[in-house]
């Protein structure tokens, strides 16, 4: 029988400090992954709506920046708040409220 050794390299969401990028059982927290996927789903829906409405490029870029922030292992509350403030200034207050609630689970 062919035996293979598999190893996960690179950053792992929820990894413990000192694992050198090698994931072991218990390092990935499913709750955090669910929180991130909820935020990403909301951002994807918002981006689709903005594309259909032909929103300015800077608004779409703010959504893309929020997406990048949400995917980080430790997103910055200050960066997320700043980007959400930019979006709420552009008339997206209701969607930003939902995003804000979803982002709170990541901090």
Automatic annotation (TrEMBL):
Residues 64-79 have a biased composition (Basic and acidic residues). This is Uncharacterized protein. It comes from the Bacteria. The lineage of its organism: Bacteria, Bacillati, Actinomycetota, Actinomycetes, Pseudonocardiales. Residues 1-21, 55-79 are annotated as: Disordered.
């Amino acid at each position: 029988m062919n035996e293979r050794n598999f190893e996960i390299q690179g950053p792992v969401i929820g990894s413990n400090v000192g694992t050198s990028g090698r994931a072991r059982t218990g390092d990935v927290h499913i709750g955090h992954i669910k929180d991130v996927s909820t935020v990403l789903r909301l951002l994807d829906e918002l981006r689709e709506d903005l594309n259909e409405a032909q929103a300015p490029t800077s608004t779409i870029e703010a959504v893309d920046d929020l997406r990048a922030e949400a995917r980080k292992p430790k997103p910055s509350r200050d960066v997320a708040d700043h980007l959400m403030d930019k979006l709420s200034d552009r008339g997206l207050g209701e969607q930003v409220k939902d995003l804000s609630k979803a982002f709170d689970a990541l901090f």
